[in-house]
Amino acid sequence: MKKLILLLLTIICFIKPVYTQKTEVSNATFETYKKAFVERFWKIYPNWATALGYHKYDSVLNVPNAAQTAKELTFASNELKRLKNFRINELSDANKIDFHLIETKLNDITWQIKELKEYEWNPATYNVGEAFAYILAENYAPLKTRMSNLLIKLRNVPAYYETAKQTIKNPSNEYLQLAIEQNEGNLSIFESDLVDSIKLLHLYPESEDAYLKRAKNAADAIRSYIQFLKDYKNDTPRSFRLGNELYNKKFEFYLESSYTPDEIFKAALDRKEYLHYEMGKIAVNLWLKYFGNQPMPTDRLVLIKKVIDTISVQHVRREDFQSAIEKQLPELTRFVKEKNLVYMDPSKPLRVRQEPGYYAGVAGASLSSPGPYEKTGTAYYNVGSLEHWSADKAESYLREYNKYVLQIMNIHEAIPGHYVQMMYNNKSPDIIKSIFQNNAMIEGWAVYAELMMLENGYGNNEPEMWLMYYKWNLRSVCNTILDISVHTKNMSKEDAMDLLVRQAFQQQTEAEGKWHRVQVSNVQLCCYFTGFKEITDLREAYKKQQGSAYKLKEFNEHFLSYGCAPVKYIRELLLKK
Ligand code: ZN
Ligand code: ZN
Predict the structure, then answer these.
(1) What is the pLDDT of residues 186-239, one digit of tens each?
(2) Cα 492 to ligand 2 centroid, rounded to whole Å
(3) Of the four listed, 116, 271, 440, 490, which is most buried by Cβ atoms within 10 Å?
(4) Which residues of 221-240 are buried (b: 16+ CB within 10 A; e: fewer)?
(5) Ligand 2 centroid vs 220 CA: distance in angstroms?
(6) Do the bridges between strand 365-368 and strand 379-383 make them parallel or antiparallel, or are there none, so unpaired?
(7) 154 touches 214 (CB < 8 A)
(8) If you compute the radius of gyration of the chain from its CA atoms, what whole number of angstroms results?
(9) What is the 282 CA–ligand 1 centroid distance (Å)?
């Protein structure tokens, strides 16, 4: 026996150094590979680079023709071959995830070009506005530098839209309409913003006319594309519904979940039932407080809606919307600290600001955090202004984001939701996870954060708070049910509206907006609930494994330490330890 142990030890001692050495070599080679890969990737996708704050290719606008497509396919297959040189089990945990992310992205690129072919049926894929607007508006370099890039980039705009016209085949009418609206919305960038900047600069007075002509040619190209779309004889339009086969594949690439759409669909239906049940209990208990002796509706959903509508009148004044958010953030920080939920680096403050003009202009809130190339930048909580809204519209919005929901929204967007997650992400220096960030993980974390705060007593377990939380959570759940039903089960508009208005207690206008969104997007609406489900499942498994040693703070911090990686890979690594 002793001999055997000795022998084993010798083998282990003998094997280990070799293994470690091999691992080190593999990881070093892989790090070098990643750097080179990213550089090649940006060359192929310059607009993506610009959006993430990498400005070497700001002047490049690729014309989306057959040659470009061939280039992308070759790129993907070459990189897949390069990946084969690595043995995944010799890589570190962080690199294992990166390996998967790169591999999935490359397969996704190939699939999108060969199978999905969105460039044929979605005219809205052709849009140069965002890249130009970003470079014009963001002050990462002197205007002179940014403009000299834009002036080169402008040259390809006419060829870009000519290619678009030649490529489009039987588009779906909904995307056709979207493309017209979006490109019309972008005209002012070329017809006024760019023109103003050219005149303002007086860079090269002798070339100014030539530059103005270039801007005009670009604007003309966009106008001509819009006209082309308006005149398009669409006798056999494609359905906006993606269909089972494409949907399942896109779900796989986009969410990288351990669940299939069928499994997530079933889980969402179960969650909806659970939420209705819990909400019903609370509504019954609150009835007396708000309605006294009035007869209680017998239909559970009607009852819940009446109580929700009554509580929703408690909201901030429209002029206080932004300051109410500002005031709440320190309170959320205090709560997170007091309950020991997750460590927050106090040196990285979050600034609340009015939404910048070039944002979509939709009210509400969003978080913009510094990209992977600008780690020292500031994170902003963008709040849409209600200033110019009609009284009715503002009132309906404020009821939706009432006293309770506003707090949940702040948890989601900021603390400990998106903002805290981004803070952890920026700590890990990994560029691959920042570029190919997993949206199910990101949204899932924010949705999970809401529940985690309430579970730990945020809002003092007030029934009103829980009721509003459940309503908010129901929105994520119904996003998933809606998306899968519409794209794979032929759900009608009537049924969709019933789901959103009667079963999820949404305002008519909000539901109409969602119906529009599901016609011009797919899979994306699933990321909230899919991520939430995966994270809460993972926490359960982790709890079981840790037994009495389980600490919520440790789970949260471990989970966040992997960056924006798909939950299934985090799960593998977290449960292995
Ligand atoms: Zn009011
Ligand atoms: Zn979010």
Answers:
(1) 999 999 999 998 888 876 677 788 889 999 999 999 999 999 999 999 999 999
(2) 27
(3) 440
(4) bbbebbebbeebeeeeebeb
(5) 37
(6) antiparallel
(7) yes
(8) 26
(9) 23
